[in-house]
Automatic annotation (TrEMBL):
This is SRPBCC family protein. Keywords: 2Fe-2S, Iron, Iron-sulfur, Metal-binding, NAD, Oxidoreductase. InterPro entries: ARHD_Rieske_2Fe_2S, Rieske_2Fe-2S, Rieske_2Fe-2S_sf, Ring_hydroxy_dOase_asu_C_dom, Rng_hydr_dOase-A. Residues 57-163 form the Rieske domain. The keyword NAD applies. The keyword Amino-acid biosynthesis does not apply.
Length: 395
């Protein structure tokens, strides 16, 4: 199903699927077990073999715009501080004082010249080096160079900040994305856009149940009859499967004007939403005039909890052709609508799903041939876990 068709042709293919009342499909219906969302052993393997092994997005670059800007991120394996350095690069550290392990930074984000420990007031520079040991004449000899903050691999690419949640790992986002997805993200120039707002939600739901719901073109008119269901066609997806990552085009209802007539050379961009799945845990939605990034992270210990983050990524005011007040009104309204759909429609459904999956006699579940991005997500996360287990066993 991998293609390299230009966008206009991919949209025409989606239109053809719509005309034929069908969608791209995989060959098989696949089974999965409810324990995939409750098993603590699998959850540990996912933390180690997925998040401790491959890059995932933690922020848009504009959220750390200036030197000394920082944010804290609860990753599945480590609590991190991510900071912009003086030279413009980014570093990520385990958010923990090297003296006796107090949490160094409690705030979600901010700007600061030093990280100062609340327990005995040791301090660290933004590059992680240990700067001050209080009362050091009594503390004793310490090799400061050996006791800076512990670094975790981080890289900025295509306007996003990516982390491998493992101090012993390396990071290569370009290689991870592969040639197709790397070229796609490069073309979007998201580094020139700005994150209008980011919000995080801690939910009592396994991260994969959450991720699944935001790759799902099959539920729209049923779970969102009065919101997204009015705007986007249900169960019509033109897929490109790149192996790890994938993307699919779903036609908006506004495209219906071309059901009977040929669109000819008419620009079709505004009649579709394009969804990108970035393995392991992100959905990037390309809307006609903005992008939306959704990320899903496992809880550090409980398989039945996760954190979702939503980012609205939009053209900067100066590139938008709008005055600031208009720009602000437009995106704040947009943000509110997105939040309402999440909280009123998706989250309650998914909480119920997690409760149900914990039933002793839940039985097996399945993914249909039409649930194409969910099939890619299953296939690839299973592969990462299996590869990690095999590598661990070979040691
Ligand atoms: S734990 Fe941080 S200074 Fe003691
Ligand atoms: Fe939904």
């Amino acid at each position: 199903m991998t293609t390299s068709l230009p966008r206009q042709d991919r949209i025409r293919r989606a239109l053809e699927l719509l005309r034929n009342e069908t969608t791209d499909k995989f060959d098989e219906v696949i089974d999965f077990a409810p324990t995939e969302f409750t098993d603590p052993v699998l959850a540990q393997d996912e933390r180690d073999h997925i998040f401790g092994t491959v890059p995932s997005i933690v922020a848009h670059s504009s959220e750390l715009a200036k030197p000394n800007d920082f944010m804290t991120v609860q990753m599945p394996r480590n609590n991190l501080i991510v900071t912009r350095q003086k030279d413009g690069s980014i570093k990520a550290f385990v958010n923990l004082c090297r003296h006796r392990g107090a949490m160094l930074e409690e705030r979600e984000k901010g700007r600061c010249r030093i990280f100062s420990c609340p327990y005995h007031r040791w301090s660290y520079d933004p590059d992680g080096s240990l700067r001050t040991i209080t009362r050091d004449t009594t503390f004793g000899e310490v090799d400061r160079a050996e006791h800076g903050l512990i670094e975790v691999p981080v890289q900025e690419r295509h306007g996003f900040v990516w982390v491998v949640d493992n101090a012993n790992a390396t990071i290569d986002v370009e290689a991870w994305l592969g040639p197709e997805m790397d070229a796609i993200l490069a073309e979007y120039r998201l580094e020139d856009a700005v994150c209008y707002q980011a919000g995080g939600f801690d939910e009592p739901t396994n991260w994969k149940l959450m991720q699944d719901a935001f790759l799902d073109g099959y539920h729209i008119q049923y779970a969102h009859p009065n919101t997204a269901g009015k705007v986007i066609h249900t169960n019509v997806m033109a897929l490109e499967d790149f192996g790890r990552h994938c993307r699919f085009i779903a036609p908006r209802k506004s495209i219906d004007r071309f059901l009977e007539e040929d669109p000819g050379d008419a620009a079709l961009d505004k009649y579709v939403t394009e969804t990108h799945f970035l393995l392991p845990n992100s959905t990037l939605l390309r809307q006609p005039d903005h992008f939306q990034l959704l990320t899903f992270r496992p809880h550090p210990s409980d398989p039945a909890q996760s954190r979702m983050e939503q980012r609205l990524i939009v053209p900067k005011v100066e590139d938008s052709g709008m005055d600031e007040a208009h720009w602000e009104r437009l995106w704040s309204k947009n943000w509110d609508i997105l939040l309402a759909v999440l909280h009123n429609e998706d989250f309650p459904l998914l909480r119920g799903s997690q409760r149900g999956m914990a039933s002793a006699d839940a039985g097996d579940m399945m993914l249909g041939r039409n649930e194409i991005a969910n099939q890619v997500f299953r296939r690839e996360t299973r592969r990462l876990v299996a590869d990690g287990r095999a590598a661990a066993a070979a040691k």
